[in-house]
Amino acid sequence: MTENDPHVPDSAAGRQDPGAQPGTEGQAAWQQTPAQPDQPSSAGSAGGDAGQSASSATGSTAAYGSAAEGSAGTSGPGATSGDASGAYGAPAGQYGAAPVYGTAQSGGAPTGGTPNPWSAQGAAAPQHGPGTQQQPTAGQPYGSQYPGGPHTPPAGAQANPYGAPGTSVYGVPAQREKKGSAGKLLAGVAAISLVIGGVAGGTVGYLTGGSGSSVSALDAPKPAQQTGNVPAGSVESVAQKLSPSVVELQVSGRTAAGEGSGFVISSDGYILTNNHVVQVAANGGQIQAVFQDGKKAAAQVVGRDPTTDIAVVKVSGVGNLTPVELGRSDDLRVGQQVVAIGSPYELTGTVTSGIVSSLHRPVQAGGDETDQTTVMDAIQTDAAINPGNSGGPLANMSGQVIGINSAIYSPNSSRGQGSGSEGGNVGIGFAIPIDQARRTAQDIIKTGHATQTFIGAKVTDAPQGGAQLGDITPGSPAEKAGLKSGDVVTKIDNRVIDSANTLVAAIRTRAPNDQATFTLADGRTVQVTLGGQPVPAN
Questions:
Q1: Which domain holds residue 394?
Q2: For the chain, does the N or the C end have fewer beta carbons within 10 angstroms?
Q3: Model's pTM, two decimal places?
Q4: Contacts for 134-140: CB closer than 8 Å, 24+ residues apart
Q5: pLDDT per residue as tens digits for the range 428-480
Q6: What's the total number of domains in the chain?
Q7: Which candidate in 5, 17, 309, 435 is catalytic?
């Protein structure tokens, strides 16, 4: 019910329409006066004057239904023949100024029609027409007798639940054939059923006081506790498997402090994370690892690789840690489901899920716009990644780590891509493929530094597409293979090269000493043996 509902005594409409409130003021609304054929009633005139749109009782207006064919009577301006002003016409009449629920017959008001108790006609209580005022029959406050006999509903009609046996809530007009209007009439009936249901319910509630027992969800017993095993391949199962191995890393240095994520890769305390997470603590800073159970342990940097944004730290004073299970990233498929776990905004153990949105996406995870030292061949995902997720695992639905969450697309940054410290999640995140991270972590643990794959040539974007080679380092893999400055690389093996960053990313995903076939813009192919060189950790 709304503020202007005449069925609510305290509403604006209820206060204005005395017919909506039983009592002395609304006495006229409870009386029934037969409308006069071919003569507008005073209520019809009032509806036309007050609303400037309501049809008279002589016209073809029905309180809730569609009007039948006939004259519009002497209603307000704008009324035309066959005017179908309905339930929400003139303000003064609220729901119309004609028979309560029926449809007017052609040519005038129906014989024996009953005024709408909520309309201007009912409120005005006509005193000038032939006949005497008729008090409502017991048990029949809203309906009128059916044509064809007193209190005799036609076959199939709904019985009046508030009246004596044989009465009906809604008046039923005499049936007549009307060309081209069957669909409209059926639609009108459907609409009426919905509207009347609300009105009748509200009216009965008002009259009876809405008494009856209520049902409350607060009184219902708690459901049984969840039992059984977590479904395999669900986000829940991945979270249960990985969460004990994911840590929050709190770092501080002489000039800055921050936090990120990491995950355990050995039971004796090695943790894999991003270089940009621990960089501020690399030279004399402090790192503290916070585990899922709340335990804390100090950690030290073992080694880091700024070119791949990978670092390894080791905690001390704890043992028997649970390492993650590493998967593989060379067989990922776009669209497969993934789960990300980390500590965004210091919210430890946050789990999100999504899909692999794209593969082999060249991303700069640090440095300036022209810096190619941090270009990675990223996995793109729509799993929510925010500042603090950096260094955390991206896993498949078997709970195997297939990437390290490292960067997000940030519309507010100058180039759109950030290391996770700019902006927030917009559904575009990037992770380092685990195949590349595994190789780098092994080098760091064994030697204390990473090994970078390279060809020994500068590279820029080619105007016509592809990667154009610049200066060639003497003795480098590029020179040994016969590549020249000015050559434009368009493909490595089966991968299309459309930019300089794509070439850099494609080379770094491969291991040193791998063989690769370079296709050049002039159609030549060149076999290149990739080289490897130590990465200085500054």
A1: 336-365+372-409+426-447
A2: C
A3: 0.59
A4: 134/31, 134/32, 134/33, 134/34, 135/30, 135/31, 135/32, 136/30, 136/31, 136/32, 137/163, 137/164, 138/164, 139/163, 139/164, 139/167, 140/164, 140/167
A5: 999 999 999 999 999 999 998 899 999 999 999 999 999 999 999 999 999 99
A6: 3
A7: 309
